[in-house]
Structure formats: C-alpha cells, structure tokens
Fold this protein.
Amino acid sequence: ITWEVDNEGLFTYVSSNVAQEWGYRLDELVGRMKFFDLYPEMEREMMREEWMQTIRRGKTLSGFENSIVTKDGRIRWLMTAGSPELDDKGQVVGYKGIDTDITAYKEAENQIRYLATHDHLTGLPGLSLAKERMSQALGLTRRRGDMLAIMVINLDNFKLVNDNWGHDIGDKVLRTVAERLRGSLRATDTAARIGGDEFVVLASALMNRHDAQRIVAKIEQAISKPIHVQAKPISISASIGLSMYPEDDDDVEALIKSADDAMYLVKGVRSGRQRG
C-alpha cells in the first residue's frame, strides 16, 4: 500500500488496494483519518508523537516495523519505508510511504520465540522465561516494598506412574498438573515447568508469608485430586518448597535454590513418614 499524508499526518492519498488489505474505503481514510489513528489504542499516543517527530524533522524511514488495526479489528504488521515531501523552499509539507504486510513473518517469528521459551508438552513457560519474569517481578517488588514468593514443586514418586502406566499416561498426568497449577494461581502469577516432574511458581504482590502458604495449600489440594485415566484414578502428590523475598534472600538464583532446598526437606520428611 502506498500513501501520502500532510504535515499533520492526515491522509491525502492512499492506493486503491487499501480496501482489500485494511478494510477501509478510500473515502474513509483520505481527508478523514490520520495515519496513527490506525494504531492499536494502547500504542496510539506514543506512535502519534513518534510519527509527528518523523514528519516534522523530515526523516527518511526504511525497514520500520509497526502494527495497525484493520477495520474489522485484525492486527496487521507492516514494514514501512517513507520519505518527506518538501515545497520549493525545502519545508516539509507532508510525507509519503509504502507499507509491506509482514504479518505472516511476524506470526512465524512469534511462534519460534514461543517454542523457544515454553515447554512443548504442557505449554507452560520454561526455566529461562520463568527467570526473566522473576527478575522483573523482583524489581517491582523492591520498589513497592511488598513480598514475593518462589515455590519449587516436585511430583512425588512420578517415576512409578511412567513405570506402571507408560510414558503416554505420564505425559497426560503432567499436562493435567500444569492445568491445575494454572487454575490455582492468580492472573499475575507464573507457573513454569523446569524439569521432567518439576515445576516452579512465582507469586508476587504478597503481604506476608501466610499469603504464600495459602497458595501452597491450594496447589497441594489441586494436584492431589485423582486423575482419571482409562476409567481408573491415579493419585499423585507433590512436595513444595517455598522461599520469599525479602525474608530468605534478595537474588533470583538464591531464591530458587532456597526453594529447591526447602522442597527436598519436605520430600525427605514425607519419605521418612512413609518408611515409618
């Protein structure tokens, strides 16, 4: 799509294929809408300022990636190239450009990024993404002055599930556990799979340790419900270790290690009870 705007960003020309690509008729755009009106609402003001600086300074663009919302509400990614239009005195009177739709490329790129950062079996984030979110949450927690919890979760005797039922059933159990973890957490929390039968949970914006312990209890209750496979129930439990900022440490790696150590203590106590 080729287009031209005046020095306020108002469309003065749009190529005729815009109806097919963006869903707008020419008379809905030309003389009526500004280019940045097409941006997603959350980005609109920022992009308006960026575009007005580009136009007024007469900057040339090449390979600028941006997204717009079509008339029917779809997000389309564009690669924009553009240059200023000048009058006889060299003053900027407008801007002209060309947009190439790169939506398929961006979707493929996002899928690759998703696969690189998420567990393929459960769809949960992997360890690297979990650590990234932990670091971000820790920074916010320091500024707010509240508390953050990290929980390391290990399924008890999961090897017996694979040995007795096979790996396909074991995979189903892992997917079910992942779903139950998601259902036990708030929208702002993160559950991740970090190993074969091991998960980690990040819970932030907590007021005290009791808030975290309530989440632990909710997770334990959810995981312990029988999982029905081939009309037979499989019972499973989990050992959960808890660490908190700022009580236990102030570093992501140290908090994970502290929660991992606590998990092994819980598992050891349970193992001792079973032997007794």
In short: The radius of gyration is 27 Å.
